Structures are given as structure tokens and as C-alpha cells.
Amino acid sequence: MPLQFALRLSSEIIRPYLNELEIQSNLAKISPILLPSYLQKVVLDLIVVEDEEMISINRERRGKDKTTDVLSFPLIDLDLPIPEQEIGEIVISINELERQAKEIEHSETDEFYRLLVHGFLHCLGYDHETNEADAKKMREKEDECLAVIFEASEP
Length: 155
Hints:
Blueprint: E1 4-10, H1 20-34, E2 41-49, H2 51-62, E3 70-74, E4 84-93, H3 94-104, H4 108-123, H5 132-153
Parallel strand pairs: 1-2, 2-4
Antiparallel strand pairs: 3-4
């Protein structure tokens, strides 16, 4: 049975790249790269907010009184072979996304998926802050996932 991927998108912000079906489809494409084969159904909460709300979430959940681009709150336990699991929650700041896209000189769509994949990997236990080897492994997985997403969207 192919993996069922359920996305719960929470956002009052309207952007062309915040298309729930497209996001779900892209996440489903990268899931086989990242998730074990015993999983039959996974659920991910994606919340897109403005800086003010991101500051509040960051303060409440991490004790940091500032905005950030993406926060991840994992729920999945890959050590338990349960076929249906919630991956967790990813929160993206639309303001940071737009600032970073401009700064890096790529599209907002590119930046959205970069942040989404980054948050997805954090939900799965990847960490770039512990040591350089882990950071390298996470960057490699990000690149692999983004290649799959953008290769599929090219004409």
C-alpha cells in the first residue's frame, strides 16, 4: 500500500506556493527518501504565520524573544513501528521567508520549500546544531529532497 500523506495547513496568508494539494504532493514525493517503509499514513501540521505570531511561539515554546524562519515540533517516533503516525508541527514565518528569499536572491517558492524540508527533517530527528557531521548529513538530505521537489515541477 502506498504511503498516505495528510497535510493540515493552517494559514490565513495567501501566496501561490501555499497550495495545499501541491505541498502535499511534494511532501509525498520526498517521504520515501526519509520515512521507513512500514509507515502507511503520516500527518503533518504546517502553520504559516507572520513575525508577530512567530515571536510569540518562539518565546512560549523555546524561551527566545525573537522571530525565526522555521520552527519544528516533532511528534513521530520512528523507533516504534506504528503504521500511522503524526510527524509533528512545522511553523514558518512568511516575513522571514520573504526576507530570506530576497537576500539569497531566489524565489519565494524556493525559500518556502527550503524551509519546509528543513523543518520536516528536524521533525524526523535531523540536527545541524550538534556537530558538523550531523549538519553535513542534514544538508545532503535537504539537497536530495529539494532536487526531487524541483525536478518534478520543471516543465
